[in-house]
Amino acid sequence: MFTSKELREKWIKFYEARGHVNIGAVSLIGDGTTGVMFNVAGMQPLMPYLLGKKHPMGTRLCNVQGCVRTVDIDSVGDATHFTFFEMMGNWSLGDYFKKEKTKWSFELLTEVFGFDKDKICSTVFEGNESVPKDSETAELLKSLGIKEENIFYLDKSNNWWELEGTVGTPCGPDNEWFYPRHDNKCCDTCDVNCDCGRYVEIGNDVYMQYKKLEGGKYTELDNKNVDTGFGLDRLLLFLNGLTDGYKTDLFIDTIKYLEKVSGKDYDADADAQKAMRIVADHTRTSVMLIGDKNGILPSNTGAGYILRRLLRRAIRYCKNLGIEATEMLGVAKIFIEKIYDQAYPLLVEKEDYILDEITKEIKKFEATLVAGMKEFDKCIIGIERKNAFMASKDPSYVPETVISGKQAFRLYDTFGFPLELTKELASEKNLTVDEEGFNLAFKEHQEKSKAQAAAAKGGLTEQNEITARYHTATHIMLAGLRKMFGTKTEQKGSNITEERLRFDFNCDHKMTEEELKTLEDFVNDVIAKNIEVVKTEMPYSQAIAQGAYGVFNAESDDQIVSIYTIGDVDKQICGGPHAKNTGELGKFVIKKEESSSGGVRRIKAVLR
Known about the structure:
By secondary structure, the protein is α+β, with helices and mostly antiparallel strands. The chain is built from 18 helices and 18 strands.
């Protein structure tokens, strides 16, 4: 059996032998510059360099990059959908181009992976009124031995890459590689354009040779780039002659574990099979997100909400399997200790932390799951009774099939059910959820919460010049923490009085004396520079685009928010109040650093 470790190694060695530098993988968590919550493609972190920025490691690069996509989370449970996957990539930044790339991709497929050149198919751009067809790539493919009848010209929707809505950016045709699962044609015209599933796309070479101009025009670039992406999970499946992604070495041990603890047969029980796939996939992605170098924790907003949704969906499917949710820890251990120990060694370092956070979420959800399911069942019974009563009165009555938004919000607010979980449960009963009503109830709840919290804006117990200075100090301190530990560091709680500040933040270790001294010096250095604290107002989307951050949930991208900027030190979305100048703060002294809760540390400090 071809293993995932062998595939990663072969990919990297192949391109290193051709002058490429392995740049390694970046965080799964979006850094705010790409507009997405998670890295969803191997090339995404390299976009600045594909757009012209010089890469510090050269012009020939390669890696294997983890990615997370949750847009089709409801499809997880079939044989081929995953929320975490890996992309094997290599890039030329103004270096080699089509001749070298087609040759190397062909060599990789035939000499390293053993594909039959007579069965390899390839698609290239057919051209249009703006750009000629990519005959160059087609001729190179034929010269390598690809049969002419196996080369297909397809339109822009299939074989062209560009950033939609932009002008002046690189773009160009791509060359996609296909291979048949078997030799049985569904019809005489069965080829890569057929929907029968016989052909599988195994990789993609994008040739960024044009610059997009105004009016849909294009011009040739002087420095052309190559962006290659091959899906590790898909290729691994194919190389082993499998059609079920959960039978590769990435999953098979976790599936066997779940079979053992549940007493159910993966291949013989369709419901158990779906449940095992969901538990395995969602546990793997949760391990990756918590154990990432910019790791996140379950929460009710942003990326943390996606993580919570994954964990809680897995917990529910553990119940479907008839096993305790804590069995997810056994699944997590297999991924950490056996499957990804070499490719992602940080997981091993953070194993106890990862397992602890999963355990906490299991306990939180299980505490409300039983009660929540009872509440859900009440909703269903209510709808069924109403339908039965109305039908008895009026034979033409159309049955109610919608769970109200208020009911869905109660399940969310009181029992911790993500809206998607309620929708999934409703779907199993052939019902839908009033999402608009849910959003309205959520908005009303937010407005009430804001009113209740008005007196404690920014964690202040009272507002005056002294507490405003302490509030400004928390901003500077958080900036220092983010500089030390990365942009994953966020405020988890704040309480300010006239005597001191108390600030909670996510951190996976007790801060050392040296780290505390570094932080204290950072804050006092900013204070000594007498930097003006500037308040501006702008739409939320514009604030984010300018690099502002903060614990804030905007109701829309157009909502006007306040941003407090302290030179080039800090730019936060915040309600205030603040000092007018950092020089007003005095001397910052950390009095204590301690644990607040799992993965959250607390600093107490004073201004003198």
